[in-house]
Amino acid sequence: VWPRAIGMCVRLRFWTTPRT
Questions:
Q1: Any alpha helices (H) in 1-20, and if so which ranges?
Q2: Can you give the pTM of this predicted structure?
């Protein structure tokens, strides 16, 4: 089980990814 920090980082990365 990975820490929430990683999950948050991944989510932030996805959120920051520009969606066309």
A1: 4-16
A2: 0.22
